[in-house]
Amino acid sequence: MEPLPAAYRWLNSHVPLPKIVTAALEQLGTVEVPGKANSSVIMGWADEVGVGAIGYRYTGDDVPWCGLFMAAMAKRAGKPIPAGPLYALNWAQFGDMVASRASLDTAKPLRAFNGRVPSLGDVLVFRRPTGGHVGLYVGEDANAFHVLGGNQGDRVCILRIAKARCVAVRRPPMSIPPASVRPFQLAAAGALSKDEA
């Protein structure tokens, strides 16, 4: 694990964090291996969640792995994994609805459900030019969500993704959410991600 970037060290003072966030932060800095070799950590996630056993085969870390990362972190946090977890857009069926767009259409407005707002630890599902992306809400600024996720520039890191690309916000099932499950307004530092692959 690499240390939290300075802009996100405030997370250390908001414990307990949602279990899924804690699990994901422990993987910060995990990178895929260039070329034909594979990261043993990333391939271990595939074994951990049994993607071969549920009808999906993960063949190497050159295959998009944001959904695989989320599946491993959900499992470690004791949360159910959606069907077809390797496909990022399938995470729009995970947990409880916080907000969504009609038919995953980014031209439609993102609408809140039952007054909920995106909060720390929520699963964010995005459209991207060649499919989807999934990660965890760490915070937000006026135009972007700050997303902790895998396969973001071939690594586990936190980056900014435009809110306009978000198609669903889902809350992991929790009997009693920790007090840290709330929105966090952050500075708009750093460039917006264009395509997380």
From TrEMBL:
Xref: NCBIfam families: TIGR02594 family protein (TIGR02594)
Name by which UniProt lists this protein: TIGR02594 family protein
Species assigned in the record: Sphingomonas naphthae
